[in-house]
Every structure is written in C-alpha cells, then in structure tokens.
Amino acid sequence: MTEPLTIYGDPGSGNCLKVKWVAAHLGIPALWHDVDVPRGGTRTPEFLALNPAGRVPVVVFPDGAVLSESNAIIAYLAEGSPLIPEAALARARMLQWMFWEQYSHEPYIAVRRYQLHYLKRPPEDLDSKLAVRGADALQLMDGTLARSAYIAGDALTLADVALVAYTRMAHEGGFDLGAYPAVRAWIGRVEAGLGIGAYV
C-alpha cells in the first residue's frame, strides 16, 4: 500500500479543500492535519518550518518533500489524470482560469466571506470593491457557463476544482447565487463529478 501524504489545512478554507478533493477523487492516500488559521495555527514555529510563507495548504510527501500553494499542489497531484487536458491549448485554458481564480476571484469572494463569516464584521465596514468585484467575477463565470458545461470547456478539469471551492461558499460572503443560474447548475455538476456533498 502506498504511504500517504499529509495535508496541512484549515477545513473552512476552500484552498485547502481543493487539495483534499483532488487527492480523494484520484484515490491518492492522504492524511489530513487540521491547522486553525484564525487562532494562529500558521504562525507557530513548527508550521513556519514547513512553509515560511505561513499559509495553508501545505502538503508533505512520504519522502519529506514539501509543497505549498493550492493550485500548484493540485496540478502536481493530478499530473497524468483526466483532470488535466492532454491538448496544449485546452491545458492552457485550464491554467488561464486557475490563474484568474487566484487573481480575480479568490481575493474578493473568499476575502469577503472570511470577513463576514469568520470575523463577523458588518457589511458596511468592508471595502465596497470586494462586493463589486466579486459580483463581476460571478457574472463572468455565469456567462461562460451558459455556453459550456464546465469552466474551461466540456470536461471537468482542475479549473473547476479551483473555482468551485469558494464559489459554492459565496453566499457566506453576501453573494446571492440565485442571480447566477448557470453557476448554480455548474456547482452541482462539479460536486457530483468530484463526489463531494453539496455545501449548504
């Protein structure tokens, strides 16, 4: 039996769940190690020895190698699997959406969720651009998903994994997913494709 890798992550983090889902979907043995981010779990000397950047997720492989950054981890885990297209242009389109997720989606939707859901800050105290740019991201996704079953085409890829993680939690950031019917339908398809339960 293959020795498992260890995932250090916060169970409330979409970025961490990406790694957990891909490992499970591909049958990669993995042990989950809880890191309580709000209580300073990423600032301890032990954690900083693993990742000096002080962020989750982090994966430690059986040989001791360490890898961080969620999209880098899932790309490594999914190498050679159907989650990464073989054709160069299709693979590049997948990467396009994964880069967009970290630059134009997560910084607004995930950050607004964190501030409202975990820090319990009132909406009027938040930077207004979080709501505006988060809604812009969801609108772009909705238009794209009205034309294709998945975000980068007609097959489930890592782009869907990357984007579904915080999109399905967006209501906790004050975003009404009812306004984005194609996104809502896509969330269900991705959850079913990955074998994960619906987030309510």
Automatic annotation (TrEMBL):
CDD domains, A to Z: GST_N_4
Domain of life: Bacteria
Entry-linked PROSITE patterns: GST_CTER (PS50405), GST_NTER (PS50404)
UniProt-listed InterPro entries: Glutathione-S-Trfase_C-like (IPR010987), Glutathione-S-Trfase_C_sf (IPR036282), Glutathione_S-Trfase (IPR040079), Glutathione_S-Trfase_N (IPR004045), GST_C (IPR004046), Thioredoxin-like_sf (IPR036249)
Domain GST N-terminal positions: 3-85
Pfam families noted in UniProt: GST_C, GST_N_2
Domain GST C-terminal: 87-200
Name by which UniProt lists this protein: Glutathione S-transferase family protein
